């Protein structure tokens, strides 16, 4: 099998070939402004070498999933997997020598960077027996190896720089050949760019990028203007896998990919101004209407009110009068607790305010007898509010056994999670969870789940795309893949 592929032709018609074996040992850097044809060049390289070598593509823009239809690449949607799963996928990719496209288009920029960094690190850390040769193509590499700190978090920047540096500096011994493409050399970390020995420089206009490109190509700086004049799809090539002297190459056609619309002018719609105004403003209010915000939690009661409430509750810890069955009093109390659980305005009250409301309603109903203390009330209220009372006795007993280890103020949200787990649901209704916890803050919900997970009460599986799966060990079997 020949290791030569044809990337394109010179103006004279002479073909320009790549030596893939040499490319695996010497790596490739591609530069060009937006619209210069970088993605087309990468697609040509991938298509021509598809049958020769394993290929792994880091695709932040969703440009390369179409390779699957023509060449059998496996497309991995980065937003559908949790971080540990991304790492496990990378290890299996190395083991089974699968050609894949890691599609990050559905993620925010920082999530893209973290996902790609963990994926590349897992590729790099694969066991020695899986060090098979592979092309690792990273499009928009300035995102993953920034020259200076940007808006991303510092720990994210360090993680991605480490992953890209390992790929370009130490990947060769592990069979990984980095192919990085960037819009601007000035934005790409120098220690990443410096490890490439093959270069394809497309059109660029900024002086700093032209000078760096000319230096890499071994051209005199007065010749740098030539880079500014390159047409779309034309590149200057140099490197041991391509040519020993700079050559201009026009990249050949590709077979996969979307058909891009033609650039240029097109006729404007022939619509009267008043009709266009109607099109723009029709039903505008309904389109932007949003659901009303949740009601603000009421102010916390004063310390004096709480003390008075507790004192009044203690006064009522007496035996019921003769002729009144304890079971009747219990039924009345349960009815009051159930009614409170159905009242939306009570859900966001503090525990002390809820207990005070409960005692007030008991007085209004002229209930005389031993009242549940605050701890017992909170448990009854949590069970009524979450619907756990509707389950069979065996399930309720099992949930109660698990809930024994839960702090009092976390009983209600834990019961929401447990009820969902018993029903076989892995996605917890976060509105119900927020209502049970008495908050409308996503941050507090996240910290709640982290706390319950540290206690070993639940298992949380976060996905890069924002999805969240919550399991309760010992209550429901975990789903199998």
From TrEMBL:
Membrane-spanning intervals of the chain: none
InterPro entries from the UniProt entry: AAA+_ATPase (IPR003593), ATPase_Atu1862_pred (IPR014588), HerA-like (IPR008571), HerA_central (IPR002789), P-loop_NTPase (IPR027417)
Residue ranges of every copy of the AAA+ ATPase domain listed in the record: 24-214
Entry-linked Pfam families: DUF87
Signal peptide coordinates: none
Keywords (A to Z) from UniProt: ATP-binding, Nucleotide-binding
This protein's record includes keyword Aminoacyl-tRNA synthetase: no
Domain of life of the native organism: Bacteria
GO molecular function annotation: ATP binding
Record-linked PANTHER family: HELICASE MJ1565-RELATED
Protein name as annotated: ATP-binding protein
